[in-house]
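hey
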C-alpha cells in the first residue's frame, strides 16, 4: 500500500469554530428555555462539531448504512472471519470496485485494516478480475481522521472486460453441461478440475494472477487456476475457498483451493494436476499420453501438507477426510504391497478399457517395494504382455510416471 497525506484546511476549521461559538454566545441566557430551544441549540452544536471534524458527508452516509451480511451467489468465507467494522469497510470496497470507481471513501484510516480487508475481498471474489494483477493500490489518509480515500488499480478497458466476462460465461456453460449428469458434488468438482487442466496452459503472463488468464487467454499460473476453480464451483453451488501459502523448500508462494463435500473439507490443486512432464522419457511429447494427474483432487491431507502451508493471515478450514480421494474411490489405493494384487488391479483396469493405470500406496515402505519391482525390476512387462493378449497386438510401447511425494505409480500403454 502507498500512503499519501494532505494537510487540513485550517481556514475552514477556524471559520466553522467561529460560527459555532458566535451562534452559541449570541443566544440570551435562559435557564428555563423551552425544549424546542434546547433542541435547536444541540442541533447547531452538532453542525459545528461536524464542521470541525471535517468528515465529508459521503463518509457520514457510509457510517449510517446497514452492513449486508450475505452477498448472493458468493460464499464469502473470509468476510465471515472479519469483525464488525472490518465488514463495513469490506462492503464499501466491494461496492466501489464493482462500480469501477476510480476512488471512493472508506470508513477507516487504519493501514492494517485496509490491507486485511482488501486481501479478504480478493480471496472471496474471483470475478473481480479487473483488480490486483500487478496494479498499484493507493490510499489517502487524513491526519487525526478515521476515514480514507481508496484508489484500486484497474487492469482492463471496458471493452476488454466485456470480452472476458463473455469468455467466463462460455466456460461456465461448458462446465455446467459437463456437470449436468454428475451424480454428486464430487463429480462436479472433478469435472471442473478436468476442464481447467484441459483448457489452461501453465504460463506466466500479464494476466496470470486472475481468471482472465484462464478463460480469456487460456494461460495462467497457480493463482489463476485457483481463482477459476473457485469461480466455477461457486456458480455450481459448491463451497470453495481460495487459499494462498508457501511451498516447502522454495521461496515461491502457491495458491490452491479447499472444497466442502458432504460436510467434509478437502484440498484441490488444479495447478499441480496439470504437469505432464512427470512422465518418463519422451512420453510427454505424445498427445495420447496427455494425462490428468488426479493425485491433487482431494489428496491425503498429510501428504499435501508436507509441501504446502497456508499463510497465517487468515485461518482456513481443517482438511482431515480421505473418503473422496481419487484412488480411494477407484479402489486404487493400497496399504501394503503384493505383486499379484497389483497385477490383478492392472488387468481389471485394462479390461475396462483404460490406457492409463495408476495406483498409490498409503506408506513409504509399500511404495518403495512396488517401485523397485515394477519399475526398476521391469515387472511392468507382465502388464504389458497382458495388454498385448487383450488386444491381439504383437508389440506395444509403454511408459511410466511416478509421483514420489504422493507414493503413486502411473503406467501408460
Amino acid at each position: 500500500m502507498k500512503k499519501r497525506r494532505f494537510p487540513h484546511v485550517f481556514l475552514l476549521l477556524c471559520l466553522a469554530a467561529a460560527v459555532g461559538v458566535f451562534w452559541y454566545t449570541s443566544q440570551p441566557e435562559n435557564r428555563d428555555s423551552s425544549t424546542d430551544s434546547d433542541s435547536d441549540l444541540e442541533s447547531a452544536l452538532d453542525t459545528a462539531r461536524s464542521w470541525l471534524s471535517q468528515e465529508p458527508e459521503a463518509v457520514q452516509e457510509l457510517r449510517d448504512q446497514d452492513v449486508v451480511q450475505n452477498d448472493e451467489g458468493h460464499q464469502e468465507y473470509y468476510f465471515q472471519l472479519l469483525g464488525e467494522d472490518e465488514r463495513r469497510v469490506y462492503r464499501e470496497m466491494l461496492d466501489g470496485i464493482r462500480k469501477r470507481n476510480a476512488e471512493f471513501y472508506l470508513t477507516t484510516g487504519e493501514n492494517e485494516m485496509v490491507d486485511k480487508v482488501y486481501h479478504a475481498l480478493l480471496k472471496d471474489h474471483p470475478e473481480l478480475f479487473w483488480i490486483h494483477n500487478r496494479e498499484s493500490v493507493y490510499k489517502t489518509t487524513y491526519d487525526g481522521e478515521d476515514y480514507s480515500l481508496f484508489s484500486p488499480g484497474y487492469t482492463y478497458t471496458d471493452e476488454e472486460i466485456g470480452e472476458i466476462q463473455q469468455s467466463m460465461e462460455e466456460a461456465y456453460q461448458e462446465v455446467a453441461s459437463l456437470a449436468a449428469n454428475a451424480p454428486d458434488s464430487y463429480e462436479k468438482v472433478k469435472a471442473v478440475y478436468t476442464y481447467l487442466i484441459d483448457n489452461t496452459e501453465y504460463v506466466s503472463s500479464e494476466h496470470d494472477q486472475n481468471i482472465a488468464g484462464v478463460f480469456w487467454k487460456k494461460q495462467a499460473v497457480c493463482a489463476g487456476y485457483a481463482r477459476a476453480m473457485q469461480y466455477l464451483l461457486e456458480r455450481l453451488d459448491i463451497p470453495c475457498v481460495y487459499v494462498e501459502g508457501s511451498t516447502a523448500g522454495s521461496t515461491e508462494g502457491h495458491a490452491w483451493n479447499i472444497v466442502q463435500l458432504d460436510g467434509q473439507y478437502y484440498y484441490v490443486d488444479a495447478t499441480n494436476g496439470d504437469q505432464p512432464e512427470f512422465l518418463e522419457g519422451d512420453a510427454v511429447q505424445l498427445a495420447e499420453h496427455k494425462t490428468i494427474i488426479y493425485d491433487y483432487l482431494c489428496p491425503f491431507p498429510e501428504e499435501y501438507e508436507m509441501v504446502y502451508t497456508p499463510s497465517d493471515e487468515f485461518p482456513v478450514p481443517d482438511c482431515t477426510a480421505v473418503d473422496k480421494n481419487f484412488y480411494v474411490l477407484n479402489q486404487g489405493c493400497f496399504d501394503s504391497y503384493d505383486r499379484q494384487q497389483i497385477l490383478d488391479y492392472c488387468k481389471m483396469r485394462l479390461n475396462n478399457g483404460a490406457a492409463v493405470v495408476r495406483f498409490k500406496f498409503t506408506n513409504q515402505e509399500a511404495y518403495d517395494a512396488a517401485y523397485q519391482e515394477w519399475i526398476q525390476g521391469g515387472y511392468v512387462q507382465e502388464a504389458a504382455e497382458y495388454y498385448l493378449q487383450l488386444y491381439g497386438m504383437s508389440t506395444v510401447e509403454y511408459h511410466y510416471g511416478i509421483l514420489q511425494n504422493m507414493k503413486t505409480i502411473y503406467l501408460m500403454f
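Residues 158-179 form the longest helix (22 residues). The radius of gyration is 30 Å.
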